[in-house]
Amino acid sequence: MIVLSEAERSLSTSQEATSSQTKERLLSKAFVLASLSHFFHALAFNLYLHLSGFLKTAGADEREIGIIFGATGAAAIIARPPMGRLIDQRGRVVVIRLGGFLHVIGCALYLSVSGPGAWVTGVRIMHGISEAMLFTSLFAFASDIVPASRRFEGIALFGVSGMLPISLGSLLGDFLLARAGGISVGAYQSLFIASVVLASVAFLLSLPLKEPVRKEAEEPARGMGQAFLQKNLLPLWFAGVVFATCLAAPFTFFAPFVMAEHVGTAGMFFSCYSIAAITLRILAGKVPERVGPKRVLLPAMIAVGGGLFLLSRATLPIHVAVAGTLSGLGHGYTFPILLGLVVSRARPAERGAALAIFTALFDAGSFVGNPLFGTVIDSTKSFRTMFVTAAIIMVVGTSLFAMLDWKTARTTPAS
Predict the structure, then answer these.
(1) In a 3-state reduction of DSSP, which class is residue 91?
(2) Does 17 or 335 have the greater pLDDT score?
(3) What pLDDT does residue 222 have?
(4) φ and ψ at 307, to 5 degrees?
(5) How far apart are CA 257 and CA 165, in angstroms?
(6) How far apart are CA 143 and CA 1, in angstroms?
(7) Is 282 a residue whose pLDDT tops 80?
(8) Which of 70, 95, 159, 294 has minimal Cβ neighbours within 10 Å of its Cβ?
């Protein structure tokens, strides 16, 4: 049974009222410019889907890889509270520019990395903080400039600029490594140089952005802690952690999986993943607003779990492609719907804080999932067991989220 909160009923009513009128425009100049900046930042980030392969080649085991990637999430989590306050108090654009500058520096520092150890962990921490700043501030900017009547559609469309680089980043990484002579520590230098160039382009594109005009909030902002404990947001935090934790399985360990099992390629999986998500958002981005976001969310989350299970059974390239497609379809709806629900339920004065918390969940998922799945691989000597574990967590977590949100909606009639 789907129970809507008062805020969501009001949003639905507002959307129905505008359905017979000319819809407000999504593709403003600010939207396009922010999307382009997001695209190039994300393309640079997604080149590092190959970083686990670099670390493996340099002598790291799966447990070390998990710890190095997990440190990234831990640092970003610590940075979230002050960042959320900064976004609400000083604005979105200042954080976009500062995060972009740190991103350029962080990418350049990878050129000095020779293998696992304290230095690469430090670089990953800086990289994670810049990613956290950009991820939060760009989506806060986008949520401010899209019409409220087209919020889920607008956020989903903006997210395409982050999904497309998953495919292009993995393919570009494959190309750069092959051109540099194959899998070797030295070959990754061209990949790191490319990331610096892409991050620099993204930073330059962000410079013309202007702070969006926001309506004066009716209620004053509370502290980050009170925003976090808002009752009707708690189920969304739980769903976000489950989703993000399970994403750590393919996004961190798929490259070593391919190296060990010789099934498909990273480019194949992530291309199918992102193409499926992008196609869904472009052709069916209006569906959540038409039928109700939570009616779409639960099947989407289950689809992610199904894709992870298929990876555990993959023996042919076509299996990898199907798994990537199914996971991508699930991701295509799960992320924008969860983010849109956060925006709808949060107080206007606390939107930046709420989005900082929401995006921190993905750092928390990395912090938990990377060491967890790395340990599973080390203990069982099986990547397939690791993917099964992730699939089980996703399905069970989705079921618990559905029950928790249903109970919360019944007892919380208003946001």
Answers:
(1) coil
(2) 335
(3) 66
(4) -65, -40
(5) 21
(6) 28
(7) yes
(8) 294
Q: Classify residue 156 as exposed, middle or buried by CB count within 10 Å of its CB (0-12, 13-18, 19+).
A: buried
**Count of CB atoms situated within 10 Å of the CB of 200:** 18
Residue 133 to residue 80: CA distance in whole angstroms: 8
Phi and psi torsions of 96, nearest 5°: -60, -45
Q: Is residue 17 part of a domain?
A: no
The answer to the question of residue 22 being in a domain is no
First to last CA, the chain: 20
Q: What is the CATH number of the domain that holds 44?
A: 1.20.1250.20
Higher pLDDT, 14 or 93: 93
Which residues, 6 or more positions from 298, have their beta carbon under 8 angstroms from its beta carbon? 398, 402
pLDDT at 9: 46
Dig out the tokens for 171 from the structure: 């393919």
Distance CA 90, CA 88 (A): 6
Q: What is the DSSP letter of 340?
A: H
Q: How far apart are CA 312 and CA 319, in angstroms?
A: 10
Q: What is the pTM (predicted TM-score) of this model?
A: 0.73
Distance CA 258, CA 320 (A): 10
* Amino acid 21: pLDDT: 39
Q: What is the pLDDT of residues 345-396, one digit of tens each?
A: 888 777 778 888 887 887 777 778 888 998 899 899 899 999 999 999 999 9
Whose structure tokens read 């989407």? 300
Task: Look at 310 and 48; give whichever has higher pLDDT.
Answer: 310
Q: In this structure, which amino acid lies at residue 97?
A: R
69 neighbors 366 (Cβ within 8 angstroms): yes
Highest mean pLDDT of the ranges 10-19, 24-33, 322-331:
322-331
How far is it, in rounded angstroms, from Cα 54 to Cα 234? 38
Q: How many domains does the chain have?
A: 1
- What's at 320, amino acid-wise? V
Show Cβ contacts of residue 396 under 8 Å, excluding neighbours closer than 6 positions: none
Residue 19 lies in a domain: no
